[in-house]
Amino acid sequence: MTATHAPVLEIRDLVKNFGALRATDGVSLEVRSGEIHALIGPNGAGKTTLIAQLSGQLRPDAGQILFSGQRINEVSAHERVGLGLVRSFQITRLFRSFSALDNVALAVQSRRPQRGSFWRSVARDREVYAEAAALLAQVGLGERLHDLAPTLSHGEQRILELALALATEPRLLMLDEPMAGAGPEESRRILELITSLRRNKPISILLVEHDMDAVFRLADRISVLVNGTLIASGPPATIRSDPLVRAAYLGDEPVE
Fold first, then answer.
1. Would residue 256 count as lying in a domain?
2. Is residue 146 part of a domain?
3. Rounded distance between C-alpha atoms, residue 175 and residue 195, angstroms
4. What is residue 256's predicted lDDT score, i.e. its pLDDT?
């Protein structure tokens, strides 16, 4: 484990209401620098709503979000990406008329100062495309550079989306069900890629995932959300044996 004890993200008493529904109910947790922190819970627990607040797509009704010690409640989603707080989505979001290389090149370009026309500058910038090609090689898509995004398999599209997120040079990467809809072989590739990220970059990961085998293999710590409330947080061994967590989510069978 390469994680330190310094938190890169702190959530304090976060609340989000949708009318009479309290989707986030006083949630407090932290993600330490360099760790993989998994957020699990049943469908409807409020995991994606929490991620949306952290990324700036939703504004909390109460509580604080601190990134590297800075309160970011009022910081826009775009500005949070610039700070290094980046997310992926449950449903893949790609430029479907573009190649894999063009998709990643646009993500690389997004963090660079603009020079003239956005579209013309991307097409002319060899450095952008070289970096995009290197990222695709890193994630195992080096042979699919010029293939249109829709021609990639579902799992490859998930991997391409990870490459887009990495192109923004995140300090904290929030992955919302990165293995959703992927087959066994593609899930294995995604798991290996997530494992490799921490070896290659000083990056923290907040992982939302329903595949419990993957969660318990990857995570340094796990937080469990049920009905918008955090019911437990700790290392995998603690979560695996917690009777409240087992009753609410994991069931009676042991998770290896």
1. no
2. no
3. 13
4. 45
- Predicted local distance difference test score (pLDDT) of residue 121: 57
Q: Which residues span the domain enclosing 56?
A: 7-95+170-250
Tokens for 12, please give them: 């304090």
On whether residue 151 sits in a domain, the answer given is no
Give dist(CA 35, CA 79) in Å, integer: 23
pLDDT (tens digit, 9 = 90+) per residue, 113-170? 665 555 555 556 888 899 999 999 999 999 999 999 999 998 899 899 999 989 988 9
- pLDDT at res. 122: 55
What is the DSSP secondary-structure string of 28-57?
Answer: EEEEETT-EEEEE--TTSSHHHHHHHHHTS
Q: CATH no. for residue 49?
A: 3.40.50.300
β strands within 77-179, DSSP E? 85-87, 172-176
Identity at 186, one-letter amino acid code: E
